[in-house]
Structure formats: structure tokens, C-alpha cells
């Protein structure tokens, strides 16, 4: 039997707003670092969930 799994992960509510706020303050490095960290965290969550599904 085949299965199809759909998942949605996030690093948390408000990441985009915080990134925008940092950019508006001219803190481009902090903005980029924050967004990159959130992206990596979400991808890590997705990998963990995928591992649970495979097991």
C-alpha cells in the first residue's frame, strides 16, 4: 500500500514581520541572519517529521 504525506512546518509566527522590522532599521545583516536561521530551523523540523513518517 502506498501513502502520501503532506506536512507544513514553520520556525514560528512573526518571522517575516521581524525580518521586515530589522530591514527598516537598516540592520541588514541581522535581518538576513534571522531569516536564514528561521529557514534552517524549519527545514530541520521537516527532516525530523519526515524521519518519523519513514519509521
Automatic annotation (TrEMBL):
Signal peptide: none annotated. This is Cobalamin-dependent methionine synthase I. It comes from Sporosarcina limicola. It holds the Pfam family Met_synt_B12. GO terms for molecular function: methionine synthase activity. InterPro entries: VitB12-dep_Met_synth_activ_dom, VitB12-dep_Met_synth_activ_sf. GO terms for biological process: methylation. Residues 1-55 form the AdoMet activation domain. The keyword Nucleus does not apply. Keywords: Methyltransferase, Transferase.
Amino acid at each position: 500500500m502506498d501513502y502520501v504525506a503532506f506536512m507544513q512546518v514553520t520556525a514560528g509566527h512573526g518571522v517575516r514581520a521581524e525580518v521586515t522590522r530589522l530591514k527598516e532599521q537598516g540592520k541588514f545583516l541581522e535581518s538576513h541572519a534571522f531569516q536564514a536561521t528561521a529557514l534552517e530551523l524549519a527545514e530541520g523540523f521537516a527532516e525530523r517529521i519526515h524521519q518519523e513518517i519513514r519509521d
